[in-house]
Amino acid sequence: MATRRSSKRGFGSIRKLPSGRFQARYSSPSGQTVTAPATFTARMDAEAWLAAERRQVEAPETWVPPKTRLEMAQRAAQVDPLPKFREYAEAWIASRRNSKGEQLRPTTRDKYLS
Predict the structure, then answer these.
(1) What pLDDT score was predicted for residue 70?
(2) Which of 10, 16, 47, 111 is 20 to 30 A from 55 (CA-CA)?
(3) Residue 17 has pLDDT above 90, yes or no
(4) Helix ranges restricted to H, the chain
(5) How far apart are CA 15 and CA 43, in angstroms?
(6) What distance lies between CA 82 and its chain's CA centroid?
(7) Buried/exposed code over 68-80 (b: 16+ C-beta within 10 A; e: otherwise)
(8) Which residues, 6+ apart, have CB-to-CB distance to 91 below 8 Å?
(9) CB within 8 A of 39, min separation 6: which ones?
(10) What is the spatial distance between Cα 24 and Cα 46, in angstroms, rounded to a whole number?
(11) How are the residues of the chain apportioned to helix, strand and coil, as percentages rounded to the nearest 5?
């Protein structure tokens, strides 16, 4: 039976899963094990995630678990969604000026909209 290899580092650990993907985890300031919310296709991506988490942990008074941060970001995205491309494009075309500072000609506006 093949053994799983885990890589112990100064902060956190990375292990290769049987699927070939990489899992990263570390110990939180409270002592609990925190696992990345997703697995990574490359070891380098797992290392980058650990580096970002280490920066978060270095300020323990403001540290928030990754799952909580993800939930907060999802809630914020639902409250203040980005405009749809059509809305953005129509607003951009309405405010667009030609090189002389005049509004776009109707044919130009129609071609942009098409």
Answers:
(1) 84
(2) 16
(3) yes
(4) 43-57, 66-79, 85-95, 106-113
(5) 9
(6) 15
(7) eeeeeeeeeeeee
(8) 83
(9) 17, 19, 21, 22, 23
(10) 6
(11) 40, 15, 40
Conformational region of residue 12, where left means phi above 0, alpha means psi within -120 to 50, and beta covers everything else: left
Mean pLDDT of 24-47: 89
Q: Which amino acid is at 60?
A: P
CB atoms within 10 A of CB 14: 23
Residue in the structure block whose two tokens are 């002592």: 31
Q: What is the pLDDT of residues 69-86, one digit of tens each?
A: 888 888 877 776 778 888
Host H or E run for residue 35: strand 33-35
- Residue in the block written with tokens 């678990």: 65
- Both structure tokens of 103: 């509004």
- Give the residue carrying structure tokens 């270095």: 58
Mean pLDDT over all residues of the chain? 83
Compute the distance between CA of residue 2 and CA of residue 5 in angstroms, rounded to an integer. Answer: 9
* pLDDT value for 80: 66
The pair of structure tokens assigned to 49 is 């995630």
Q: What DSSP state is assigned to residue 81?
A: P
